[in-house]
Design brief:
The complex is a heterodimer of chains A (360) and B (88). Chain A has 360 residues and is an alpha/beta fold. Helix content of chain A is 43%, strand content 8%. Chain A contains eleven helices and nine strands. Chain A folds into three domains: 44 residues; 111 residues, Elastase, domain 1 (Roll), CATH 3.10.170.10; 160 residues, Neutral Protease, domain 2. Chain A starts with 14 loop residues before the first helix and ends in a 6-residue tail after the last helix. Chain A is globular. In chain A, a hairpin with a 3-residue loop joins strand 8 and strand 9. Chain B has one domain. Helices cover 30% and strands 31% of the residues of chain B. Chain B contains two helices and four strands. Chain B has a four-stranded antiparallel sheet, covered by helices on one side. Chain B is globular and about 40 Å long. The two termini of chain B are 14 Å apart. The chains are: A alpha/beta (360), B alpha+beta (88). At the A-B interface, helix 1, strand 4, helix 5, helix 6 and helix 7 of A face loops of B. Chain B: It comes from Streptomyces griseomycini. Chain B: This is Metalloprotease. Chain B: Pfam families: Emfourin.
C-alpha cells in the first residue's frame, strides 16, 4: 500500500453518501443549471475534501492553524446531535466551556472526551489526538436505534442503542476512550484495519479505553474490572460487557448475542475473513497480554505497562502492517529502553510468552 | 425475490443476518425497487470501511454487493434496516 495513507483510505466525506458518485457525475453534465449547479458544487467539494484528507494523512499533522483562543494543554471539545439522522456532524449542542445541558448523552460524551484528553496529556504529555491540540468532535444520537459507535477518520459517532440489546454507547467511558484512541492510532502507527494489524489497532483502542476508565476512577490494576463496554448491554442480555481483557471469551453468553468469541492465546487464534479478518475477535490475545503485564507490575496500569504500549504506538518503529510478533518485540524493546533490565522487561516478556506470541 | 443482508464488524464485532422473501407479499414491488437501487450503488468487493464501522453484504437473487458505514446510500440504509428488522 502507499506509505502514509491511512486505514481509512476509502473514506470520503459523508455528503457523498446521500447521492452516489455516478449519479452526481450524470447530474453535473446536465444542461439545466438548476440541476448541474448543486451537483458540480458537490463534486468540487468532494474533490477538495479528498485532497485535504490525503494531504492530512500523508503529511501527518493537519496544517490547520489553531484558533486564537486555543491554549496548548486544553481540550477543544464540540458535541453534535445527529437528531436520529445520519448526516454528520449534525447540530452543535455543546462547545468547549459551555455549561452542561439537559441531555445526559451529550454531557457524557463531553465528559468522556475530557477524560481521554486528560489521560493522554497527564500520563503521556500528548496534546489531544494528533499531539497538536486537534479539536475533539463527537456526534451523538446517530440514526435510529443504532447499535454501534465508530471513528470515521475525523470524529467519533455514537448510537443510542436499540434498548433491546444495547443501551446508549456513551454510557461506558472506555467506549468513548476506545473511539478516540482509534484517532490516536490513525495519527501515529496508523495500523491497517485488517487481520493481525487490525486486531492490534482494536487492542490498542481497548487498552487505552480501559486505561481512561481506570485513570478516571483512580483504580489500580488489581482494582480494575478490565471489561470493555460494561453497562452497555441491555438488562435482558446475559453478560457483563462486550469484551474482557482479564478473561477473553467470557464477557457474554446469550441466546440472542451468542457467546463472546474472543481467544486469550494463540492456540485459539481465529482465522476468518469476516469482521475485517477478525479484528474484534483476535484482539483478545494482545488485550490479554497487556492485562498480564499490567497486573504483574501492579499499581496504576497507565504508568508502566501503558507507557510501554504508548511508546510502541508512537515510537515510529511499528509498521502499518505489523503482526503480533512485531508489536510484542517492540514492547520488549520499549520496556528495556524506558525502564532498563528490570521487572518491567520481565513482566512484558512473560506476558507475551503466556499468550503464545513470539518475541524476536 | 430473496433479499439477504449480513452485517459484520461494529464495536461489538457481533454478526447479524436476515433474509426476506418477497414472493406473495403485498408490498413486493416496493421491496424490489428498493433492493434494485441498493444493489446498483453497491460494490463488488468489501470496502475497507472505518474503525468499528459496520460492514454489509447484500445478496439479491444470488447477486452480491458490499457496502460499509457511514458511506451508505439512503436506499442501502433503508433496505438493510428493513431486512434486519423484518427478516428471518
Amino acid at each position: 500500500m502507499v506509505p502514509g495513507m491511512t486505514a481509512n483510505r476509502g473514506f470520503e466525506p459523508v455528503f457523498c453518501t446521500i447521492v452516489p458518485p455516478h449519479v452526481l457525475d450524470r447530474l453535473a453534465q446536465a444542461e439545466d443549471p438548476v440541476v448541474h449547479g448543486p451537483a458540480r458544487r458537490t463534486l468540487r467539494r468532494d474533490a477538495y475534501e479528498r485532497t485535504q484528507r490525503r494531504l492530512t494523512t500523508v503529511v501527518g499533522a493537519p496544517a490547520v492553524a489553531a484558533p486564537a483562543e486555543a491554549e496548548p494543554g486544553k481540550p477543544r471539545r464540540t458535541v453534535y446531535d445527529a437528531r436520529h439522522r445520519t448526516a454528520l456532524p449534525g447540530t452543535k449542542v455543546r462547545g468547549e466551556g459551555d455549561a452542561p445541558g439537559r441531555d445526559a448523552t451529550v454531557n457524557r460524551a463531553y465528559a468522556g472526551l475530557g477524560a481521554t484528553f486528560e489521560l493522554f496529556l497527564k500520563a503521556y504529555s500528548r496534546d489531544s489526538i494528533d499531539g497538536h491540540g486537534l479539536p475533539m468532535d463527537a456526534t451523538v444520537h446517530y440514526d435510529e436505534d443504532y447499535n454501534n459507535a465508530f471513528w470515521n477518520g475525523e470524529q467519533m459517532v455514537f448510537g443510542d442503542g436499540d434498548g433491546e440489546i444495547f443501551l446508549d454507547f456513551t454510557i461506558p467511558v472506555d467506549v468513548i476512550g476506545h473511539e478516540l484512541a482509534h484517532g490516536v492510532t490513525q495519527y501515529t502507527a496508523n495500523l491497517d484495519y485488517f487481520g493481525q494489524s487490525g486486531a492490534l489497532n482494536e487492542s490498542v483502542s481497548d487498552v487505552f479505553g480501559a486505561l481512561i476508565k481506570q485513570y478516571t476512577l483512580g483504580q489500580t490494576a488489581e482494582e480494575a474490572d478490565w471489561l470493555i463496554g460494561a453497562g452497555l448491554l441491555a438488562p435482558r442480555v446475559t453478560g457483563k460487557a462486550l469484551r474482557s481483557m482479564k478473561e477473553p471469551g467470557t464477557a457474554y453468553d446469550d441466546d440472542v448475542l451468542g457467546k463472546d468469541p474472543q481467544p486469550a492465546t494463540m492456540d485459539d487464534y481465529v482465522r476468518t475473513g469476516r469482521d475485517n479478518g477478525g479484528v474484534h475477535i483476535n484482539s483478545g490475545i494482545p488485550n490479554h497480554a497487556f492485562y498480564l503485564a499490567a497486573t504483574t507490575l501492579g499499581g496504576h496500569a497507565w504508568e508502566r505497562a501503558g507507557q510501554v504500549w504508548y511508546d510502541v504506538l508512537t515510537g515510529g518503529e511499528l509498521g502499518q502492517d505489523a503482526q503480533f510478533t512485531d508489536f510484542a518485540t517492540l514492547t520488549v524493546e520499549a520496556a528495556r529502553a524506558r525502564f532498563g533490565e528490570g521487572e518491567e522487561l520481565r513482566a512484558v516478556t512473560k506476558a507475551w510468552e503466556r499468550v503464545g506470541v513470539r518475541t524476536l | 425475490m430473496r433479499i439477504q443482508v449480513r452485517r459484520t464488524g461494529g464495536f461489538a464485532g457481533i454478526e447479524r443476518q436476515a433474509e426476506v422473501d418477497t414472493s406473495g407479499r403485498a408490498d413486493a414491488s416496493e421491496w424490489h425497487a428498493l433492493a434494485e437501487r441498493a444493489v446498483a450503488a453497491g460494490r463488488g468487493t468489501p470496502p475497507v470501511g472505518v474503525p468499528d464501522g459496520f460492514s454489509y453484504r447484500i445478496t439479491v437473487d444470488g447477486r452480491t454487493v458490499y457496502c460499509a458505514d457511514p458511506r451508505l446510500t439512503d436506499e442501502q440504509r433503508k433496505l438493510i434496516s428493513r431486512v434486519l428488522k423484518e427478516g428471518a
